[in-house]
Amino acid sequence: MESGKAELHIIEQWQWADGQQIWLDTSKMPLRDAKGNVFGILLVTKDITKRQMAQEELKQQKQNLEEALAELQLMLWKSQILDALLKREKLIPRILSQLLLKLVKISRK
């Protein structure tokens, strides 16, 4: 306030003597006389604790949803990989039989 300019919507956390914490939205405006000299300060403060708590809750929910989405994406990728492997699995018996035939031929030599 030393600058003589208004300071609007300063968000601060305060703690009461009993330990309870609250959030305040404070605005400070200089009061001037006819010559422009500051003779006082108009202080307006609003308790925004509920709003801050709601914002924190929304932030936490957003984080939880982002984590759940990432987990679902991972599960989808795993499912797609498994599906691709199962489709290829139909080829595995044929590949194994060809490999066994080659091994038998080698062992007979």
The major β-sheet equals: 3 strands, antiparallel
Order of helices and strands: EEEHH
Low-confidence stretches: none
- Overall number of structural domains: 2
Estimated structural class: alpha+beta
Q: Mind explaining what this structure looks like?
A:
By secondary structure, the chain is of the alpha+beta class. The chain folds into two domains: 7-47, Complement Module, domain 1 (Ribbon); 54-108. 53% of the residues lie in helices and 28% in strands. It is built from two helices and three strands. A hairpin with a 5-residue loop joins strand 1 (7-15) and strand 2 (21-32). It starts with 6 loop residues before the first strand and ends with a helix.
Which SSEs are present, and which pair or pack?
Elements lengths: L6 E9 L5 E12 L5 E10 L1 H41 L2 H17 L1
Antiparallel strand pairs: 1-2, 2-3
Short recap of the structure:
The protein has two helices and three strands. By secondary structure, the protein is of the alpha+beta class.
